[in-house]
Structures are given as C-alpha cells and as structure tokens.
Automatic annotation (TrEMBL):
Keyword Hydrolase part of the UniProt annotation: yes
Transmembrane segments: none
InterPro entries documented for this protein: AB_hydrolase_fold, Plant_Biomass_Hydrol_Est, PLipase/COase/thioEstase
UniProt protein name: Phospholipase/carboxylesterase/thioesterase domain-containing protein
SUPFAM superfamilies (UniProt xref): alpha/beta-Hydrolases
Single annotated GO MF: hydrolase activity
Entry keyword Signal: yes
Source species: Zooxanthella nutricula
Segments forming domain Phospholipase/carboxylesterase/thioesterase: 20-94
UniProt keywords, alphabetically: Hydrolase, Signal
Gene3D superfamilies, A to Z: alpha/beta hydrolase (3.40.50.1820)
Length: 124
C-alpha cells in the first residue's frame, strides 16, 4: 500500500476542493499517525509547512535527508514513560530532524517543573 501516495492525493484533493492556503499545511499525528506524519514531511517537505506530533518516531530514518528535502519545522512531544515507543527512539528522531534541518548546536534542555524541554534550533 502506498500510504504516502494516498496522503499526497488527499492533500491535492483538499487543496483543490477547499479554501486552504498550501503554504500553511501542517501534518500531525499521534503514535503511528506521528510516524506517518514525520515520514510524509521528510519525503515531501515541499508540500508541508511543518510537522507536529506526539508519541512516535521517525522509522527507518536515513543518514541524510532526500535530495529534494527543504528545511522543515518539527514539533515533537514524547513521554519518558511511554511503554510502546521508547523515549530513546523519540530522542533519536529529534536528533535526526535536527541534522536534516542543518542544526549545528547541541540540544538545549531546560527544566519546566517536572518536565524537561529539549530544543533544537540553533543554526537551522
């Protein structure tokens, strides 16, 4: 099944049928939907303004982004107690996105109450 092809068709239909500004299209998802949103954004970055998701990872992340890739804003949320997708996989995904987007500095981690917030963004 060509899931990414299906999403391209849904996006094209949505843009043709509704008053949607193409440059403001974001993909989002939870768990498997997060994984699909990340994959779509990586392989079709020219079609999305960014991606935001929760509790997923970028499966089968390549060493380098596709040649057609354009830097893409990414917002990832993940809990350290997730028993389905480990936090370390989410950390790896965040590091992969930072590399694809050309971020040069290491992640900046700040503590907000009981939560750590890790931000990648310098030099991107």
């Amino acid at each position: 099944v060509d899931d990414l092809g299906f999403l391209r068709l849904v996006l094209a239909h949505t843009l043709d049928s509704h008053d949607v500004i193409a440059s403001r299209v974001f993909f989002a998802g939870y768990s498997n939907g997060c994984m699909m949103a990340q994959r779509f954004a990586l392989e079709h970055s020219a079609l999305v303004a960014g991606v935001g998701c929760h509790s997923g990872e970028l499966l089968f992340a390549p060493d380098a982004a596709p040649s057609s890739f354009t830097p893409t804003p990414v917002y990832l949320v993940h809990g350290s107690r997730d028993s389905v997708v480990s936090y370390s996989k989410a950390e790896r995904s965040a590091a992969d996105w930072a590399r694809y987007n050309g971020c040069r500095a290491p992640a900046n981690t700040t503590l907000h109450g009981a939560y750590n917030v890790r931000t990648y963004g310098e030099g991107c």
